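Supplementary Methods S3. Complex input for the adenosine monophosphate-bound model.
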Amino acid sequence: MALRKTGLLNTAGTPEPVNVQGDRSQIPSPKIPLALVLFGSPGSGKGTQSKLLVRELGIPQISTGDMLREHVRNGNGVGTKVEAKLKAGILVKDEVVNVLVEERLAQPDAANGFILDGYPRTRAQAEMLCRMLAARGIHEVVIHLVVDYNVIIARLTGRRQCPVCGTLYNDISKPPKVPGVCDLDGAKLVVREDDREEVIRQRLEAYEKQTRPLLDYFREKGKSLYEIDASHDAPEQVFRKIEALIRKQ
Ligand code: AMP
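Predicted complex, serialized as C-alpha cells:
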C-alpha cells in the first residue's frame, strides 16, 4: 500500500508509521492499495478501530454515518432527505449512500487505500462497492468484528459523545475523567440521538436483516473475509489482531 505521510511503504524520505504505542510499526508493505472494510454490528468498535488504523496506515476513514451526520448538521439537501431516517435508526436509501461514497473515493487521498466504516450495509451497496473497487484495481479485505449481543447493548446504551469535538465515551469501558464532561474541551457530554433505546433496537434490527447477510455475499464472491473476536479485548488488543491480518495481505 503506497502511503503518504505515515505510510506503510518506508521509501526514502518517508517517515515510518508510528503505532498506537508510539513506537515504530512493523507492518510490512501490502502489495497494492487496500480497501479495509470494517464490518460489524453498531457498537462493535468499527469507529474506534478505524481511528487507530488511520493513525497507523495514513489512509482515510470513510464513515458513511459521519458523512450523513455532517450533511444533517449542514442542513443541506441530502441532510434534509436523510435526517428522519438517521433519527429513527433506519437505513438511508442505497442511491444516496452510494453517491456519497463514489464521490468520496474519487478524492485524491483515497487513491492509495481507505478504511470503510459502516459501508456497505446492503447487498446493493456491496455490489456497487465491488464494481467501484474492480474499476480502480483495489483489493478489499473485509474484517468482521464479532461482538456478543449483550456487550453491544451495554456499549450502545452507555455511549456518550462530546457535541463539540465528537469524542466518544462509555460509562463503563471509557468513562471521562469527570462524569458527563469531555476530557478534551470540558463540554457537557450528550447521548447521540440514535443511541436512545428504541432507536438502538431499530439499528440492530436493520443490521440483522439487511447487513449481516452480506457475510454470505462476501463468501460467495470469494472476498478476503476475516473474523475477529472483539467482545472483551481492549481496543488496542483488537487493533493488534487487525494489524496482524493486514501483514498477511
Ligand atoms: P453509523 O454511525 O454507521 O451507525 O450510522 C448511523 C446511521 O446512518 C444509520 O443508522 C443509518 O441511518 C445511516 N447510515 C450510515 N451508513 C449507512 C449505509 N451504508 N447505508 C444506509 N444508511 C446508513
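The longest strand covers residues 139-146. The chain has nine helices and seven strands.
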